[in-house]
């Protein structure tokens, strides 16, 4: 059976020509036109997020609050709950979606995402360790610990997947990520059960929610997330080369190890920052790259740009659904799990049916 992950046997010159043809926009669909449509859809869903919630507030009252900021119960709900969680959704959704694109690109594994590869579990474990061992409670401390946890886990899983291999082994990376993530999640659960103080501090954060009610906390993660996204955009041409295989990428002038390390650093920034402010939220990094790829094609730059908009669109929509379908509201991580689990099963069946794993 042919290994679909192995690079094609062709010359670098032919690769350049075929890749340029594949990345040219067709007359039927314009990538920039779709991007504008997604931007309008995102603006619309952000508006809905501010106007719709567990408590029914008339549109006229919402407009009065936004324009005059009146002192009322409705003002507290809109200004201190709905607006902050919409901003958090924009940041976290974009971060997780771009991180998913990077992980699937460098591993060449369509089932890879920050949750499946244990990156979110690593960030959560380091935050918990800081709470238990160092007594950390502030957002800056959580942010740094989550970043280092995501970075260390990403590097460890990557090296396990490439150990004694000439190139990245998608199956080994997936299995290593699942195993390490399960181990860290089990250890974290044991620690929280034995430590009441840690359990009290982690029980809300660890569930994954956009309802932090404090934009000052989110502001600390803005720069790391922006830097991680910009780094992903900068290395996107090199990732296009890398998708053809490491040998061909080197022939095209790509420094493979440097690009992979830059991608890991970006993943750590994005996953660590988003996990620090909203807790672990799964399946965004798995679903969005596949949706974006259907819209944008194989070009990594367009794929990343689409993911920046699709991630917030999905996570804010999930947050709205969680607010309105239950009296006490359902956390966004639970809603994304309900949507993402069937998608994961479908993708796993597709992948195994074509012999990719």
Automatic annotation (TrEMBL):
Origin superkingdom: Bacteria
Pfam families reported for this sequence: FecCD (PF01032)
InterPro entries, alphabetized: ABC_BtuC-like (IPR037294), ABC_transptr_permease_BtuC (IPR000522)
Swiss-Prot/TrEMBL keywords: Cell membrane, Membrane, Transmembrane, Transmembrane helix, Transport
Main location: membrane
Residue intervals passing through the bilayer: 35-54, 87-106, 118-136, 143-161, 173-194, 215-239, 259-288, 300-318, 330-348
Cellular location(s): Cell membrane
Entry-linked SUPFAM superfamilies: ABC transporter involved in vitamin B12 uptake, BtuC
Membrane topology: Multi-pass membrane protein
Keyword flag Zinc: no
Family of this protein: Belongs to the binding-protein-dependent transport system permease family. FecCD subfamily.
Protein name in the entry: Ferric enterobactin transport system permease protein FepD
Lineage: Bacteria, Pseudomonadati, Pseudomonadota, Gammaproteobacteria, Vibrionales
């Amino acid at each position: 059976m042919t290994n679909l992950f192995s690079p094609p046997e062709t010359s670098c010159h032919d690769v350049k020509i075929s890749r340029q043809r594949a990345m040219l926009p067709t007359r039927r669909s314009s990538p920039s036109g779709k991007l504008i449509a997604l931007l309008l859809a995102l603006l619309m869903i952000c508006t809905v997020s501010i106007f719709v919630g567990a408590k029914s507030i008339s549109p006229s009252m919402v407009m009065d609050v936004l324009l005059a900021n009146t002192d009322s119960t409705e003002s507290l709900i809109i200004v201190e709950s709905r607006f902050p969680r919409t901003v958090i959704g924009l940041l976290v959704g974009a971060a997780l979606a771009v991180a998913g694109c990077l992980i699937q690109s460098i591993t060449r594994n369509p089932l890879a995402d920050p949750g499946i590869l244990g990156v979110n579990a690593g960030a959560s474990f380091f935050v918990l360790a800081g709470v238990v061992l160092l007594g950390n409670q502030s957002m800056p401390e959580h942010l740094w610990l989550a970043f280092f946890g995501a970075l260390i886990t990403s590097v460890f899983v990557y090296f396990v997947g490439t150990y004694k291999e000439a190139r990245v082994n998608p199956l080994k990376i997936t299995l290593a990520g699942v195993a390490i993530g399960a181990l860290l999640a089990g250890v974290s659960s044991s620690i929280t059960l034995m430590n009441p103080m840690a359990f009290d501090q982690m029980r809300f954060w660890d569930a994954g929610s956009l309802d932090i009610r404090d934009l000052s906390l989110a502001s600390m993660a803005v720069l790391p997330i922006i830097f991680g996204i910009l780094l992903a955009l900068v290395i996107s041409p090199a990732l296009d080369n890398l998708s053809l295989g490491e040998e061909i990428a080197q022939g095209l002038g790509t420094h493979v190890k440097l690009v992979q390390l830059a991608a890991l650093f970006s993943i750590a920034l994005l996953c660590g920052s988003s996990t620090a402010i909203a807790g672990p939220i799964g399946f965004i990094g798995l679903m969005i790259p596949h949706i974006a790829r259907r819209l944008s094609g194989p070009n990594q730059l367009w794929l990343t740009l689409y993911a920046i908009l699709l991630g917030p669109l999905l996570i804010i929509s999930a947050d709205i659904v969680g607010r309105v379908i239950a009296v006490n509201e359902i956390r966004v991580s639970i809603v994304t799990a309900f949507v993402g689990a069937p998608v994961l099963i479908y993708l796993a069946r597709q992948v195994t049916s074509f012999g990719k794993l």
